[in-house]
Design a protein that fits this description.
This protein is of the alpha/beta class. The protein is built from 7 helices and 7 strands; from the N terminus they run αβαβαββαβααβαβ. Strand 4, helix 4 and strand 5 form a beta-alpha-beta unit.
């Protein structure tokens, strides 16, 4: 088992560079705010790829020594309570990498932080898909809804989303999704055959995570 850090998250979680999230950030974004910065791996990836400054919000106090080396500014605290002074409409891009599902009220948080994005700016997020074959199989045929250290049923997940409810979440905050990407499960053997059959009915049932880029009007 991985060593566990603050908030019950495996320590490896705080080092994830998330190239899949970075791929959705436009190359012309110069000011970026990352919610759930971890130890700053994603921000460093973006800063190495394009001329930009990255600010961050992170709940884990241990992140401070990492973020102060590479981030322009950062705030340590609970994203559902923290306020960023003087940052209104400052950013070209707002990032929520695997964050919204951990919140009590992601609708309010997404709407509130979207105000920090310039008109025409973007919000990029990655969100697990609860309408997933492996998860539904365990629920329907085994009666299991078992929380785990990480994955679709991460112990820290408080909210669960499908593609439709993700679209509703962003629409509620006045954001228009312009790009959908998907991380899919990879099956072998009999599970692969079962997935092929299930996809005839629900084409995205093998999606374990959606990645979206939305535009602020």
């Amino acid at each position: 088992m991985n060593h566990v850090e603050a908030g019950g998250m495996p320590v490896d979680y705080f080092y994830l560079s998330r190239s899949d999230v970075a791929a959705l950030v436009p190359a012309d974004c110069r000011t970026i705010l990352e919610i759930g910065s971890g130890f700053g791996a994603l921000g460093r990836t973006l800063a190495a790829r394009q001329p930009c400054t990255v600010d961050g919000v992170e709940i884990n106090p241990a992140a401070s020594k990492h973020l102060e080396r590479h981030y322009r500014r950062f705030w340590i605290g609970d994203v559902e309570r923290i306020e960023l002074e003087g940052a209104m409409q400052e950013y070209d891009c707002l990032l929520f990498p695997d964050v919204l599902e951990h919140l009590v009220d992601p609708w309010t948080v997404l709407g509130r932080f979207s105000r920090y994005v310039k008109a025409g700016g973007v919000v990029v997020a990655s969100i697990p898909n609860v309408c997933n074959l492996a998860l539904l199989y365990r629920l329907i045929f085994q009666g299991m809804w078992q929380y785990e250290e990480s994955g679709l049923l991460d112990r820290g997940h408080l909210r669960f989303f499908t593609r439709r409810s993700i679209a509703e979440l962003f629409s509620y905050s006045g954001l228009t999704i312009e790009n959908w990407q998907m991380n899919r499960d990879r099956y072998v053997g009999i599970r692969r055959l079962a997935a092929i059959a299930a996809k005839l009915v629900v084409p995205e049932i093998d999606v374990c995570q959606y990645l979206v880029r939305a535009r602020r009007g």
